Amino acid sequence: MNQRYADVAFEDRMSHVDFRVAEKAHIVVDTDVCRSCTTKACVHACPANLFVPTDDGGILFNYEQCFECGTCYLVCDGGNAISWSYPDGGQGVVFRHG
Ligand code: SF4
Ligand code: SF4
Q1: What residue owns the CA closest to ligand 2's atom 2?
Q2: Which of 13, 59, 66 best tests ligand 2's pocket when mutated (most atoms within 8 Å of CB)?
Q3: What is the pLDDT of residues 37-51, one digit of tens each?
Q4: Where does the signal sequence lie (predicted)?
Q5: Does 29 sit in the ligand 1 pocket, CB within 6 Å?
Q6: Domains of the chain
Q7: pLDDT at 31 over 70
């Protein structure tokens, strides 16, 4: 039997999310590598739209509203373009209940 989660509006989901932005980026992107990447898979895969392609073939990245899902790290085709770690304790995304 197929089971589904109840439909929840995007705004309702986001009302339970906080970002405690750490000074030190937990994801670092080597944008020199991105320039020669043909898929730009991160642009399509990141649920927070944090990877933005630039006109000159590069990538702009901002870690501040990252969900820490790890998807970009998994889909990245550029070898070692992404250095990924968790933020220090107490920082980063917070999912609140209620
Ligand atoms: S998939 Fe990886 S190498 Fe390609 S643009 Fe995104 S971060 Fe850069
Ligand atoms: S970890 Fe997830 S939310 Fe954060 S930048 Fe990567 S794909 Fe986007």
Answers
A1: 69
A2: 66
A3: 999 999 999 999 999
A4: none
A5: yes
A6: 24-95 (3.30.70.20)
A7: yes
